Amino acid sequence: MPVSLRTALFSTVLAVLLPGFAAAAPITAAGIEAASYAGGPLPSGQSALTVKVQVMLDRAGTSPGVIDGIKGGMSRSAIAAFERRSGLPADGQMDPQVWAALQPFAGGAMTMDYTITEADASELTLHIPNDYLEKANMTSLGYTSVAEKLGERFHMDEKFVSTLNPGIPLVAGSTIKVIAPSKPLRAKVARIFVEKGTNRVAGYDAEGHMVVNYPATIGSTETPSPSGTHKVRAVALKPEYTYNPAINFTQGENKTVLTLPPGPNGPVGTVWIALTKPTYGIHGTPTPSRLFVSESHGCVRLTNWDAEELAHMVQPGITTVDFLERGTSLADVMGEAKGVSKAVAAAAGPVPAAGVAGVASLALISSAPPLPRPASLAAMPVVPAAVPATGAAPTDPLAAAVEAATSGAPGVLVQPAAGQQVPAQ
C-alpha cells in the first residue's frame, strides 16, 4: 500500500476515534478519497470528509459555493437544500440519511492531477483597484493569480488550491492536485426562486422538480433586492459593466457614468442574467468565498461557475424569477419534493456502498409522481422561441480539453446588442 494512502487511512481512523483530530489533520488528495462517514455531524473546522461531502453536493447541483473543506454556513445551507430536494428534514446537518442520499454522486475520483499550462500562468492582472474610475481605465478585470484562475475552474477556494498542494509552486509545468470536475447540469429552468431567508437561489424545471440550488448574496439593508415575480430578459457572458451613480449607488468620489471592462473580477463577474425589472439581475462575483458575508446593491450574486451553469439553463422571456421574502420558504410555495429531475438523475452514477454500516443507499428515482405544475406556469410554453446561441471556443488545445472536461453543450443565450453594456446594479 502506498505511504500516502496508508497515512490517509490512518488519519481517517484517528478522526473517528479521536474527536477533533479531523479538523487538525493535513488535508491530502488521498485523504479525501479515503474519507468516510461514521455518523454524527461533520468535523469542526477543515476536514477531508467535508471536502468529499462538498464535492458530492456540487455534483448533485446543490452548490456549497467554494469547495474548501470548511464546515461553514454555505456548506450547511447546501446540505439543507439537498435534504429538501431529497425529501428529508432540511436541518442542514450531516446524518446517515444524507450520506446515503449523496452516494449516487460519489462515483469516480474526487480529485485529479492537473499540469499547469503556460496559458494558465499568463494573462494575469497584477492588481484590481477598488476605485471604479481606475477600473474603467483598465483593459480587463482578469484573474490575479494562477490559484484564483484554477480555483474558479475547479470550484475551489483559491487558498484551498495551495492547501492541497503544499510546497508546490503554482507555475507552468507543475503538476498539482485539484477537485475532479463534473459537467454542469443541463436542463430547461422554468422557474427560479430567490430565497431571502436562506440566501439560496433554486432553479426548477417545468414539472416542478428542483434542478439546481446555489448560495447567493441577496441585496442589502440599504439596497434590498426586488420583491414579487419577474422574468429573465436576457443573458450576457463576459459582460462590460456600466456604472451609473444616478441609478442605484455612488462608489467613492465617482459622480459620472463609467464603463468597466469585462473579467471575472468585475462587479458582476463573468455572467449577467438580466431581469425584466430594470437594472436588476442575477450575476457572478469576484469574491466567491464571501457570498454569505458581502452585500450587493440589490442584485443576486452567485459564484461565477454557478452563474454560468444557470445562464445555460434559463429561457429568456420564459423563465420566471420569484423573490421569496423572509418567512416564506420553498416548501411553502412548491410543497414537498417528489422524485428528481431528469437532469439530476442523469448526473448520478451507480450507487456505491453507503459507507455507514447498516444504512442502505437511497436510490434516485425520476419516475416518482412529480409535483403539480404551479399555476403560474400553467400557460407557460416549455420550449422557448429560437434565439442565436453564443460563446467562443478556447483556441489553446489544452485549454479546449479542460473546457470539454468542465463544460456541457452551450445553452441558449441572448447577448446584448452591439455597444450595449450591463447596467449598474
Q: Layout of SSEs?
A:
Blueprint lengths: L2 H15 L3 H4 L4 H6 L13 H12 L13 H14 L9 H7 L8 E5 L2 H4 L10 H5 L9 H8 L4 H6 L11 E5 L11 E5 L4 E5 L5 E6 L1 E2 L9 E10 L3 E3 L14 E3 L10 E5 L5 E3 L16 E2 L2 H8 L8 E5 L5 H5 L7 H6 L49 H10 L19
Parallel strand pairs: 3-13, 11-12
Antiparallel strand pairs: 1-2, 3-4, 4-5, 6-12, 7-10, 7-13, 8-9, 10-11
Describe this protein's structure.
The strands form 3 sheets. The protein has a 9-stranded mixed β-sheet with strand order 5-4-3-13-7-10-11-12-6, with helices on both faces. The N and C termini lie far apart (55 Å). The chain is globular and about 60 Å long. The chain is of the alpha+beta class and 425 residues long. It has 14 helices and 13 strands. A hairpin with a 5-residue loop joins strand 10 (271-275) and strand 11. The model is unreliable at 7-24 and 353-420 (pLDDT under 50).
What is the structure about, briefly put?
With 425 residues, this protein is of the alpha+beta class. The chain contains 14 helices and 13 strands.
Q: In percent, how much strand structure appears in the residues?
A: 5-15%
Using only C-alpha atoms, the radius of gyration works out to 21 Å
Which shape, going by the Cα principal axes? Answer: globular
Helical content, roughly?
25-40%
Strand adjacency order, main sheet: 5-4-3-13-7-10-11-12-6
Total strand segments: 13
